[in-house]
Structure formats: C-alpha cells, structure tokens
Amino acid sequence: MDKSADRQYTEFKLKNRTKVNRYLNVVMWFFVITGPAIALGVLGGVFHNVSYLTCFYISAMMAVLSAIHLVLVKKIPTSTATSIFALTALNVLLVYMACVHVSLHLTWFLVPLLSLLFCDRFIFFYAVGVNYVLMVLTTWVTAPFYAMTRTDYTEPAAYFTDVISGLTIETLIMCVSGFIVLRLAVEYYSELLRQNATINEQQRSMKEKMDILDSMAEIYDNVNLIDFVENTEMSLREPEQVKHGIDMDKQTHTLMNQRIKNRVMSDQLDAFLTFTNITTVRERLTGKKVISADFIDVVSGWFRAQYITAEASSHGVPNMVIYTTRNVDEEKRREEHLVRISMTDELTRLFNRRCYEEDLTQYRSGPLGDDFVLLSVDVNGLKKVNDTKGHAAGDELIKGAADCLALSVGNGGKVYRTGGDEFIAVLRTEDPEGIRSLIAERSAQWHGIYTDEIALSVGFASRRDHPDATVDDLERMADADMYAEKEKYYREKGIDRRR
Predict the structure, then answer these.
(1) CA 95, CA 85: separation in Å to the nearest integer?
(2) How many C-beta atoms surround the C-beta of residue 209 within 10 A?
(3) To the nearest 5 percent, what fractions of the chain are helix, strand and coil?
(4) Dihedral angle at the C-alpha atoms of 64, 69, 70, 72, nearest 10 degrees?
(5) In this structure, are residues 324 and 223 in contact, taking their beta carbons and an 8 Å threshold?
(6) What's 344's DSSP letter?
(7) Which of 459, 458, 453 is CA-nearest to residue 397?
(8) Which residue(s) pair with 302 in the sheet?
C-alpha cells in the first residue's frame, strides 16, 4: 500500500477496533448469564459435576471482566490493550469452565476466530498464541479427570498426548487459514479504501468543476457542457440541468447552437456554422485550452463563442468541453473606438499618417484601377498666420482646410492629415480636375473667426494618366504637382517666399 492508502487503512482499523470492542463487550455481558443458565442445568440434573457456587463464580468473574472492559471501551476504545483484554477475558472463561468440568463445550478456536474481526495481524497472532498456551495448560490440568472417565485411556499422559496432538494440528490449520483470511480481508478493505478515496477525489474534483461551471454560468449568456465520451450536452443556464444526447453520425450542431444560429447575421452564418460544427471541435481543440470566434447577433450585437477544454486525454484530445457565448458588443465598440482614435488626427478628425501608411501598404500589394487618384494638399500661408495671429488662428486654418477637403472628397475616398499643414487624399474618380476645382470653390467660400480666407495648393496624379506608375510614383507626382500649384499661387499673389 502507498502512504495515503496505509494512512486510510490505519484510520479504518481504529474505527473498526472501536466498533468490535463495543460488540465484544456486549458478548461478554451476555456470558454473565452463563452462570444462571448452568445452574438451571444443575437443577435439572444435566450437569453432575458442577456446583451452584461454580455458577456464581462464572457470573461474578464475567461481570467483573465485562465491567473492566466497558471502562476501557469508554476510555481507550481504539487501544490494542482494550481488544487484547476482551480476548483474554474470553480465554479465561474457557479455561475456568474446562477446569471446573462444565460439560458445555465451547470451541477453543472461538477467541482466534473473533480476533479476525479486528483485521490486525498482531491481535490475531496474540490470540492464537495465548489460546494455544492456555489450551495446552488446561488440557494437562484436566487430563487426569478425563482419563479416569474414559475406558480407552489408562494414563492421563496418554489422554493429554492424544488430545493435544489433535488440537495442535487444528491450531496450525486454523492459524494458516486465519492468516490467509486476514490477509485477504486486509487487501480487500485496503482496495475498497483506495477505490473510495479515488471516488471521493473524483467527486471532489467534479464538485469543484461544477462550482466553477456554476460561477461561469453567471458570467456567460450561454454555457453548455459537452461530453464527447457519453456524447451528451447539458445547458448550465437552464433551471433543470438535463443531459441531451448527441448523434455524432447525423448531428453537426448542438441544440444550443441550433437555437443561436437563428439570430446570427446572415453574412456571418456560414462562418458561425463552420466554427460550431460539433464533428470537428475535438480535432480543432486538440492540444489547446480554448478556441474562440466573434459574430454578430442581429438583436444584441457582437458576441464571442468559445470552446474551452475541461477534461482531456493523455494525448490532449478533449473529452469534456465547455461551450460559452458572451455579449462583447461594448468591448467591440471600445476596440473600434480605440482603433479609430489611433487612426485619427486629433485636431481635424481626419485619418492620420499612421492610417495612411497602413492603407498605402495595401495599395502597394493590390491592383489600383484606372480611377485611382492621389491628391497632395498643402495650406498656403500657415506660417504667416501663426506668426501674426497666433496658433489658435493657425489651428482654425488647418481645421478649415480639413473641412473643405472632407466635403469635397465625400464618400469617394479618404482624406489624411500627414503633417502640420500637409494633407493627402486617396480617392476613386474619373474627374480629378473637377475635385480640385471643387476644393478651390469651397476654400473660396470659407471664412473663419480669426482669418477671413484660406488658400490650398492641390496637386494630383491619376493612374489613368500614368498607367505604369506605382502608388509611390503617384505620390511623388502629386507632391510635385502640388508644389507647382503653390509656386503659381505665390507668384500670382506677388509674394516673395524667400523673404
């Protein structure tokens, strides 16, 4: 036995010893009435060689021994001494009855047999040893009496040798048989205790898991326990937790997902059915703790579906899986908001340079199309406004430029603020010159609080005009065109930029 099983067996043996000691005490008190019973036999002429005084001695002796044993049972019920006292007391009774020639023959092997109840090797061998010694002494003491009553024995020694030889053989047989029975009993009870410990551990583990599942049921909108060994599913959110069978040959989705799919956004339904296909879950989850995917509920918004491994084989194949769904609409909105902030210029609310660089990466790897146009825009005179009217006026000018660009481009593309007074617009249009004219018209109509006018230099490059150009080539061409427009503006205004 391992240490845990040995400890459990020791605990069992102590509890068992207490119980057997109590029963033996009852047996000892029962033997108190042996004296009156024998007295009735004396009165009836059954026992010829027994006196009433002997009957009294038997009852008195057993009463005293039973009382002492009762005290021991109350004080030290698990002690080996308490058990040995009871067995020795019964041996004393047997010896006394044999010595006073009471012809009520109790087997000498009664005490060793009773000692087996303790499931203790020391107590058993003690009982066998003491019993044999007392049996030999008693047979020697009573041999003269019984030899005289028998015609087949002329000498007490012959009687003693004959009887003790048979009793010795019986003792050996009883000792070996008793030891085998005791060993089997110890192994049997030890195995029972091991199994009981395993069952208790499994129950404890299952209770812990169920407690965790119950707590999870409070967090998630749906919690489904799927057992791939028994092929069952059980919802933990239902008032009555009932297991439903899963036919893995015909059924591709659990009952829960069959209900949930009715509320999934139509363009996501195929992806949802693929993710929740019960026939592929084990394979996809093998060696993993969790797999998850996000979908949109047409009523409540985004939700997250997860398969979590609750119990797996030694090869990592999940045998028991928890399927959950949880509303993450607020989380998604928060993510979208953070993404929007990270991709948006704080002053103008246009897309920022980071967003432009990421979009540019996609444009580099994909076809541009003939209607692809890139605008490069710069605010004229921003430095002068900042120097003469302050940065509030300069910020107003930048926001005015952003508004003119955004309104002019509209849904036809995206506008980015890529620097202090620099903007880029990526759009799809057949008439880029018309967009530049529209920007000029809106700029002419703009009026601010600090500044009355705004002037924008706009350059563009289109894929139609440059079919072999890359997006980087178009960006450089648009910048060159913008700087040409800027030079033209300053020349027409008679402004010497070098000053």
Answers:
(1) 15
(2) 15
(3) 60, 15, 25
(4) 130
(5) yes
(6) B
(7) 453
(8) 296
pTM listed for this prediction: 0.45
- Token pair, residue 420, equals 């202090």
Q: In what helix (H) or strand (E) does residue 88 lie, and over which residues does it extend?
A: helix 80-99
pLDDT band at 210 (very low <50, low <70, confident <90, very high): low
Three-state secondary structure of 267-326: HHHHHHHHHCCCCCHHHHHCCCCEEEEEEEECCCEEEEEEEEEEEECCCCCEEEEEEEEE
Q: What is the pLDDT of residues 377-428, one digit of tens each?
A: 999 988 888 888 998 999 999 999 999 999 899 888 999 999 889 999 999 9
Question: Checking DSSP bridges between strand 413-417 and strand 351-352, what pairing results, if any?
Answer: parallel
Cα separation of 420 and 397, whole Å?
Answer: 11
3-state secondary structure of 467: coil
Residues 6 or more apart whose Cβ sits within 8 Å of residue 358: 343
Q: Of the candidates 106, 103, 105, 107, which has an alpha carbon nearest to the alpha carbon of residue 48? A: 103
The DSSP line for 354-369 is HHHHHHHHHHHHS---
pLDDT band for position 375 (cuts 50, 70, 90)? very high
Q: Domains of the chain (ranges plus CATH)?
A: 3-195 (no CATH), 220-328 (3.30.450), 343-493 (3.30.70.270)
